[in-house]
Amino acid sequence: MSSNTLKLLQKHKKTILEIWMKNQLTDDGLREDLISNEDLREQSEELVAALVANLSGNDLEDLDGDNWSSVIEILGGIAITRARQGFSPRETGRFVHSLKESILEVLQIQIKDPQQLFDESMKIIRVMDNLSIVTFETFIKGREEVILRQTDEIAEISTPVIRVWDGILALPIIGTLDSSRTQIVMENLLQEIVETGSSIAILDISGVPAVDSLVAQHLIKTVSATRLMGAECIISGIRPEIAQTVVHLGIDLSNIITKASLASALAYAFKVLRLEVRKTNSVNKINNI
Fold first, then answer.
1. Residue where a domain stops, chosen among 153, 175, 209
2. From CA 54, how far away is CA 219, in angstroms rounded?
3. Domain check: are 108 and 171 in the same one?
4. Domain span holding position 237
């Protein structure tokens, strides 16, 4: 970029910022629910200052150079923040694209020579397009981090191990049971067996939409692991359609205790532990036999 154009951009840095802010604030896609106008202006001002300061030199397309590190760092921070705040890729890309439009608008006003305007505009377009790619890549990484964190949080929430009584644990499973989730289920259940010294674990599959051969194998593995820890495992929530599917697929669950409901499984667990439920004065009471 010519020294004259660089001086021009430095001189009209505030004009670029004002045009850019005007374009952003009048954009129909402005997300005031995700970022305040003050924060938006602060981000924009910081980026404009860093960008204009780094437009000198001949390596305008080499964004890996040291002189572009500050701009990349600012854009990366903005992209990550926007990914976490809930901005869409289009909205984040529009943020950088509107800056390019603002710079080109200033060049069109200040440069009168058509050839010079074309040359300098193409340089700005190439730089801003490359920065848009960097911003998009960083945004995608930030969004992936958010998705992975949310997936882990959902997995933890969806596999709670509940201590329903002394020596009895229950683990309600909701949703599809795949290999990775089976591992989480087993780890949580086995850890809780060790910590509580429980002898009976109930796996309730009432919330599992369907049971196929793969899901059945996962359940069998969980039961086997539980038995190796010295605890008996009961599978509850066997609905009629699930029972028919299991029979149709030829899956052998004969060595596993199964019950139609969690209440039935709990009653069976009480029986094994020689506990019984009695109603006395409208209050449920459990006594040792």
1. 153
2. 59
3. no
4. 162-288
Question: Is there a single domain that holds both residue 96 and residue 168?
Answer: no
Whether 249 and 220 have beta carbons less than 8 Å apart is answered as no
Distance CA 66, CA 13 (A): 22
* DSSP letter for each residue of the chain: --HHHHHHHHHTHHHHHHHHHHHHHT-TT--TTTS-HHHHHHHHHHHHHHHHHT--SS-TT-TTSGGGHHHHHHHHHHHHHHHHHT--HHHHHHHHHHHHHHHHHHHHHH---HHHHHHHHHHHHHHHHHHHHHHHHHHHHHHHHHHHHHHHHHHHHTS--EEEETTEEEEEEES---HHHHHHHHHHHHHHHHHHT-SEEEEEEEE-S---HHHHHHHHHHHHHHHHTT-EEEEE---HHHHHHHHHHT---TTSEEESSHHHHHHHHHHHTTEEEEEETTEEEEEE-
Split at pLDDT 50, 70, 90, the class of 282 is: low
Residue that is last in its domain, among 153, 171, 192: 153
Q: Which residue has the tokens 């359940």?
A: 219
Q: What is the pLDDT of residue 240?
A: 85
Work out the average pLDDT over 123-148: 86
Chain CA centroid to CA 284, Å:
44
101 and 132 fall within a common domain: yes
- pTM for the whole structure: 0.55
* pLDDT score at 198: 92
CB of 238 closer than 8 Å to CB of 260: yes
Asked whether 1 and 120 are in contact (CB, 8 A), the reply is: yes
19/104 same-domain check: yes
pLDDT at 278: 77
- The two tokens of residue 3 are 């020294």
